[in-house]
Specification:
Elements: E1 5-9, H1 15-25, H2 32-39, E2 44-51, E3 61-68, E4 71-79, H3 88-102, E5 107-112, H4 117-125, E6 129-134, E7 145-151
Parallel strand pairs: 4-5
Antiparallel strand pairs: 1-2, 2-3, 3-4, 5-7, 6-7
The structure holds coenzyme A.
Length: about 170
C-alpha cells in the first residue's frame, strides 16, 4: 500500500471505528462508553491514524494517553489487524510522545502484559525500560502487568522517531 498516513486528533465520528479496533485487539475490550469518556476528558488525548486526503476518511489505529503535570500515562494503543506491521503504531507512539513532551511531560509510563511480545518490542525500541511488575493486574487472565517507563531526563534515550514508512 502506498497511501500516506495521517495522524490526527480523534473526534466523535471515530468512536465506532475505535471500538471496532478495540474489540478486534483485546480479549477484554474497553466499552464504547470508555472511548466517549476519554474524548470528553480534559487531560486525555486520543490520536488516530488513517489515510491522508484525498483518500476516503478511515480510522486504522489509535493511541490514548493522559498528560498530568510532568507525566504521560499511555492508556491504550491498538492497530486494526488488517493494518498491522506497516509502522502505524510506531507513528502513533512517536506523535503521542512528541505531543506529551511539548505539554511538559518528563516521564512516560504504561502497563503491558508480559506475553505481549509485539508491544514490548515496540516500546523497547523507543527506549522504554521495565521498572516494575503489578501482580495479577489483568482481571481476565490474572496475568501480571509489567510497568514500563521512558524517562526523558535520562541521557541517551532512543526516541524511535523519524522512522516514517508509507502505510
Ligand atoms: C502492538 C501493536 C499496537 C503494534 O502495531 P503495528 O502497527 O503493527 O506496529 P508497527 O508496524 O508500528 O511495528 C512497530 C514495532 O513493533 C514491534 N512489533 C509489531 N508487531 C510485531 C509482531 N507481530 N512481532 C514482533 N514485533 C512486533 C516491532 O518492534 C516493530 O518494529 P519493526 O517493524 O521495525 O520490527 C498491534 O500489534 C496491536 O494493535 N496489538 C493488539 C493491541 C495491543 O496489544 N496493544 C498494546 C497494548 S500495551
Amino acid at each position: 500500500m502506498t497511501q500516506r498516513l495521517l495522524i490526527r486528533r480523534a473526534g466523535l465520528a471515530d468512536v465506532t471505528a475505535l471500538w471496532a479496533i478495540e474489540k478486534a485487539s483485546f480479549p477484554s475490550p474497553w466499552s464504547r462508553w470508555s472511548f466517549l469518556a476519554e474524548l470528553g476528558h480534559g487531560n486525555s488525548h486520543t490520536l488516530v491514524a488513517g489515510p491522508s486526503p484525498p483518500h476516503p476518511w478511515q480510522t486504522w489505529g489509535y493511541i490514548i494517553f493522559w498528560v498530568v503535570l510532568d507525566e504521560m500515562h499511555i492508556l491504550n494503543l491498538a492497530v486494526h489487524p488488517e493494518h498491522r506491521r506497516r509502522g502505524l503504531a510506531r507513528r502513533l507512539l512517536a506523535e503521542g510522545l512528541d505531543q506529551a513532551r511539548t505539554l511538559g511531560a518528563e516521564l512516560a509510563w504504561l502497563e503491558v502484559r508480559p506475553s505481549n511480545l509485539s508491544a514490548l518490542a515496540l516500546y523497547e525500541s523507543f527506549g522504554f525500560k521495565t521498572v516494575g511488575r503489578r501482580p495479577r493486574y489483568y482481571d481476565d487472565t490474572q496475568e501480571d502487568a509489567l510497568l514500563l517507563t521512558l524517562d526523558w531526563s535520562e541521557a541517551g534515550n532512543n526516541s524511535g522517531e523519524g522512522e516514517e514508512r508509507p502505510a
